[in-house]
Amino acid sequence: MKRKMIALFAILFLILSSSCLFAASPWMSKETYSEQAAGKVEFGVKNTLLGWTDLISEPQNYKRDGKNVWKGIGKGLVDAIVNTVGGVFHLATFPFPFDFPLPEDGVSLE
């Protein structure tokens, strides 16, 4: 089971980091190691605890923009899972300053 989880994280990391759809996480712009580590913890907590909110926000955004709401539900489900798992990954790896970019820079509090 442990090897399967490591393989899953490796595959997700390769897919997400190679995609041009994802920009660097906001904490990557910090200058010092301690600022990056603190920013990565904050980013991880926010996405772990609030990743599920994409289930609500994405369909609303699609409806507001006049797009297909069902596609928004699908995108919200995928983003919620990726943001939550990515948040846990950021928390688990905060001492190491490598990035695991999340869709649309993770959960937005705006």
Describe the structure.
With 110 residues, the protein is mostly helical. The chain has one domain (33-110). It has 4 helices and no strands. The relative contact order is 0.20. The model has no long low-confidence stretch (mean pLDDT 83).
Summarize, please:
This protein has helices spanning 2-18, 33-50, 54-64, 69-92. The chain is mostly helical.
**Rough outline:** globular
Indicate the structural class: mainly alpha
* Average pLDDT figure: 83
Helix content: 55-70%
DSSP summary, beta strand count? 0
Secondary structure layout:
Blueprint: H1 2-18, H2 33-50, H3 54-64, H4 69-92
Supply database-style keywords.
110 residues; mainly alpha; 0% strand; globular
